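Re: that chain you flagged

S.,

Sorry for the slow reply, it's been a week of failed gels. I finally had a moment to sit down with the sequence you sent. For the record, here it is as I used it:
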Amino acid sequence: MKTLSLIALLACPLAVRAAIHTETVEYKHGDVTLEGHLVYDDANRTTRPAVLISHQWKGLSDYEKKRAEMLAKLGYVVFAVDIYGKGIRPEDAGSASAEAGKYKNNRALLRARVNAGLETLRKQKFVDPKRIAAIGYCFGGTTVLELARSGADLAGVVSFHGALDSPNPADGSNIKCKVLALHGADDPFVPDTEVAAFEAEMRAGGVDWQLIKYGGAVHSFTDWNADGSMKGAKYDKLADYRSWEDMKQFFAELFK
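Prediction finished late last night. Pasting the structure tokens below so you have them in one place:
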């Protein structure tokens, strides 16, 4: 009994050390203060690959923070970036659409904002600056594709149910990294013409790209909060699972 108690006592500090570290990180883009969320396993003191997460249209939320924790448990340093700015977190669809529109209609600004987050991630301890990927959800999926189109030095990007359009398709030739687009086959917000244009852009740019479509899935298929009250946007448990596994396989290839 005493031996078992001693083992349990000695194990406690190890359990504490293995906790996931979370930290709010303020950074700047020009005069604008942004507030991101950094997550990593502090039991691992080695340099490792990192993942940037870009948020959906309501801004950085608990959803992205939970995804960051999931990735940190897989061994990555993770930084959920803030595109809108500190304290700007739209609460309803109308406000979110208006805020997201500011950046979707100004891709140069969107690229600059997400690149500011990438540079902040690159400077964090334990990050291998040569092994960074970026993922994004909905608006964030568009954002990471624009990050790639900006010519950012990345290993790869993953768009989850993001818009695939580009005002300047020729920018596909700027892409240096691998691209994975995970798409709901029945997403009414991303029409077939947009999907076809994305494919043409990737081919013309000579990009190493993949497009995976999930049958029956609509927009927001990974979002646990999408209950179908917005027509065309609903969580799909199977598509969520499959897309997460497809992302993991993609990362295994990037970081082997």
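What I noticed first: The first helix runs from residue 2 to 17.

Talk soon,
D.
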